[in-house]
């Protein structure tokens, strides 16, 4: 639980939590400001709810004012018996599509952000639920973990490049999903 991204895996979040530039901060600030609701998987929830996870000062969007976070929809087979965090977490047992639908209803004018893990993101793309992909590629290779876009099979998902922002800690890729 203390190494939710694996030993050394925290480097993939340097752009958001560590060695960040003004451009990295803007990418993160814009994403958080546009977030009306967030969808995440149960494994990610268990990490953020764990003893080394989110706190009053560090949560969605990193180190920032956490006084009015968006509602969270956690895709799970079983809600946890207890939890440490007191935020607006809804545990959805009906799958990714139901979680996204409920998040859309709660988001108002904001975006629904699917923050992961990889399996939940992958399922959203495979089910045609994603309108845009924002992929942050860190300059580090990890030898394990859940592969992103493993559920697509042999199909393809056409994308339109919207923007690329490169910093020392990440290359931020923005794509529109073409239907």
Provide tags for this entry.
4-stranded parallel β-sheet, about 25% helix, single chain, globular, alpha/beta, 3-stranded antiparallel β-sheet, about 180 residues, 9 strands
Describe it.
With 179 residues, this protein is α/β, with parallel strands linked by helices. It has five helices and nine strands. The chain is 26% helix and 27% strand. The strands form three sheets. A four-stranded parallel sheet has the order 5-4-1-6. Strands 7-9-8 form a three-stranded antiparallel sheet. Strand 2 and strand 3 form a beta hairpin. The model has no long low-confidence stretch (mean pLDDT 89).
Distinct helical segment count: 5
General form: globular
Strand order of the largest sheet: 5-4-1-6
| Sheet with the most strands, sense and barrel status | 4 strands, parallel
Query: β content, as a range?
Result: 25-35%
Which structural class fits the helix and strand makeup? Answer: alpha/beta
SSE order, as H and E? HHEHEEEEHEHEEE
Question: What would the average pLDDT be, to the nearest integer?
Answer: 89
Percent of residues in helical segments? 25-40%
Report Rg.
Answer: 16 Å
Tell me the total number of β-strands: 9
- Catalogue the unreliable spans: none
What is the CA-CA span between the terminal residues? 38 Å
């Amino acid at each position: 639980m203390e190494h939710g991204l694996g030993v050394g895996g925290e480097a993939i979040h340097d752009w958001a939590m560590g060695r960040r530039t003004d451009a990295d901060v803007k990418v993160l600030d814009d994403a958080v400001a546009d977030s009306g609701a967030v969808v995440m998987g149960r494994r990610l929830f268990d990490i953020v709810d764990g003893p080394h996870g989110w706190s009053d000062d560090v949560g969605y969007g990193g180190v920032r004012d956490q006084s009015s976070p968006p509602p969270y929809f956690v895709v799970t087979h079983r809600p946890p018996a207890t939890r440490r965090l007191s935020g607006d977490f809804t545990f959805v047992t009906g799958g990714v599509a139901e979680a996204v639908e409920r998040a859309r209803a709660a988001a108002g004018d904001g975006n629904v952000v699917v923050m992961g893990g990889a399996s939940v993101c992958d399922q959203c793309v495979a089910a045609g639920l994603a309108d845009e992909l924002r992929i942050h590629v860190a300059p580090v290779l990890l030898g394990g973990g859940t592969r992103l876009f493993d559920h697509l099979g042999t199909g393809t998902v056409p994308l339109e490049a919207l923007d690329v922002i490169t910093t020392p800690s990440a290359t931020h890729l923005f794509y529109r999903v073409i239907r």
